[in-house]
Recover the amino acids of this structure.
């Protein structure tokens, strides 16, 4: 037997062996019940189960807080509580008005949109919302608005029917919104304008404008939910599923989160089965109260009913955060590759140096986008 023939035979044998092992592992993973890998299981794991545990997909519903930051850097302009159920592929999204009052000692203006900028802000936000709503929240995601624009551009834009001419200029935030009425494809930059608009420039309150906007954050929330509906409806198809890895690569290096890349890949495993009709939208029930500042006071009883029916979840928060410290007026960016491994990318010296600044920082104060609102939440899903 010559050497070339020997290598050919050995290569064939090894290939067949690897194929059989791989097939067995995939079959094992697909059949493995979640209870088999539960931390509370009374059944002792065998060696193979231990090895394959990281690759097994959990079936428990999970909650996470999703935020998008505005150009003030530390402020969170969009806040949503999201529930995903892997068993049903259903997604429940509750918009939380940015002026929602929170019970956090030491905040001069205790609004939910200022929590994330505080020291240990991710944990503070999750703990506060968990206590308010009576639910488990395992993850948080903070997305910079520039990354949002990049994602929309990668997807080729989203077609939206803009209901009215939108013109608004805020030089302090360097925010300029100029959209024409009518159906059109919004790229990343225009999508940001659509999502942030809530009132026109002075003198722009026409009868037509008042049909769609009243200056409140509630109307902006409706626009945000409408955009998400269209995004899912238009892009949740096989053509765009092929871009999922590219999207994840763009997102993960430019967000702040405690979700590891391995967990993200688990969460999107069934994305090809996802349908637009599986998404339900809510707005936190409550009303506006003025006491020096305008606050949104949530309705505890109505919120409890919604949480029990639509936001049940397992899992507790663990801060494997890739968040960087923020200072007023500047947003930190993530370095996910290294921070995901260490769980914390801040040294003790950094924390000591920044603690005073973070404790005193209250980005809600004097923020021109925190003008009075007249919110009233909805208690039922918006179709």
């Amino acid at each position: 037997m010559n050497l070339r023939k020997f290598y050919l035979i050995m290569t064939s044998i090894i290939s067949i062996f690897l194929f059989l092992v791989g097939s067995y592992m995939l079959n094992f993973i697909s059949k493995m019940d979640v209870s088999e890998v539960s931390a509370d299981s009374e059944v002792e794991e065998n060696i193979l189960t231990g090895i394959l545990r990281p690759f097994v997909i959990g079936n428990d519903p999970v909650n996470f807080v999703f935020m998008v930051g505005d150009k003030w850097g530390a402020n969170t302009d969009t806040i949503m509580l999201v529930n995903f159920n892997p068993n049903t592929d259903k997604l429940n999204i509750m918009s939380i008005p940015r002026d929602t009052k929170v019970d956090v000692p030491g905040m001069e203006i205790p609004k939910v949109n200022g929590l994330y900028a505080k020291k240990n802000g991710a944990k503070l936000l999750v703990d506060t919302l968990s206590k308010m709503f009576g639910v488990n929240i395992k993850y948080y995601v903070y997305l910079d608005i520039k990354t949002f624009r990049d994602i929309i551009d990668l997807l080729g834009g989203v077609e939206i029917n803009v209901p009215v001419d939108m013109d608004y200029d805020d030089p302090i935030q360097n925010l300029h919104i100029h959209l024409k009425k009518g159906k059109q494809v919004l790229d990343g930059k225009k999508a940001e304008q659509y999502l942030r608009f809530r009132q026109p420039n002075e003198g722009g309150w026409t009868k037509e404008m008042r049909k769609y906007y009243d200056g409140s954050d509630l109307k902006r929330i409706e626009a945000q939910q409408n955009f998400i509906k269209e995004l899912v409806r238009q892009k949740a198809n096989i053509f765009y599923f092929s871009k999922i890895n590219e999207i994840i690569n763009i997102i993960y290096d430019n967000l702040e989160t405690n979700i590891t890349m391995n967990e993200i890949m688990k969460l999107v495993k069934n994305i090809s089965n996802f349908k637009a009709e599986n998404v339900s939208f809510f707005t936190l029930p409550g009303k506006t109260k003025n006491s020096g500042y305008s606050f949104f006071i949530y309705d505890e009883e109505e919120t409890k009913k919604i949480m029990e029916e639509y936001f049940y979840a397992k899992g507790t928060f663990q801060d494997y955060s890739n968040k960087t410290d923020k200072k007023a007026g500047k947003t930190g960016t993530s370095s996910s590759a290294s921070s995901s491994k260490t769980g914390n990318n801040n040294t003790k010296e950094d924390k000591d140096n920044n603690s005073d600044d973070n404790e005193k920082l209250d980005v809600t104060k004097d923020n021109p986008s925190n003008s009075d609102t007249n919110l009233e939440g909805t208690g039922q899903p918006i179709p």
Q: What stands out?
A: The two ends are 72 Å apart (CA to CA). Residues 3-31 form the longest helix (29 residues). Residues 3-55 form one domain.
